[in-house]
Amino acid sequence: MQTETGSADSGAPDGAEATADGLLTPLEVIEEQPLHTRAESYLALHAELSARLEGADAPRHG
Questions:
Q1: What is the pLDDT at residue 26?
Q2: What's the start-to-end Cα distance of the chain, in Å?
Q3: Chain center to CA of 6
Q4: Which residues contact 13 (CB under 8 A, 6 or more apart)?
Q5: Residue with more model confidence, 44 or 13
Q6: What is the phi/psi pair of residue 55, to 5°?
Q7: How confident is residue 24, by pLDDT bands cut at 50, 70 and 90?
């Protein structure tokens, strides 16, 4: 089976081998945690990604 990029599937979720933003590794770490701790980890990841997105909208001075 091949992924959208044309490379062989490595068995990663949704055929993803790695992402440019490094998101795959934190998600793998969260999924390996016990169920009762995942929600807190997902909330922390959501907060981090929201901060990145909001920062990207800020006007740049330079």
A1: 87
A2: 46
A3: 21
A4: 24, 27
A5: 44
A6: -70, -30
A7: confident
Asked if 9 contacts 1 with a C-beta cutoff of 8 angstroms, the reply is yes
CA 39 to chain centre: 15
Cβ partners under 8 Å of residue 20, min gap 6: none
Amino acid at 12: A
Residues present in the chain in total: 62
Chain centre to alpha carbon of residue 3: 18
Q: Is pLDDT above 80 for 15?
A: no
Helix (H, G, I), strand (E, B) or coil at 4: coil
Q: How far apart are CA 12 and CA 5, in angstroms?
A: 14
pLDDT in tens, 42-59: 999 999 999 999 987 767
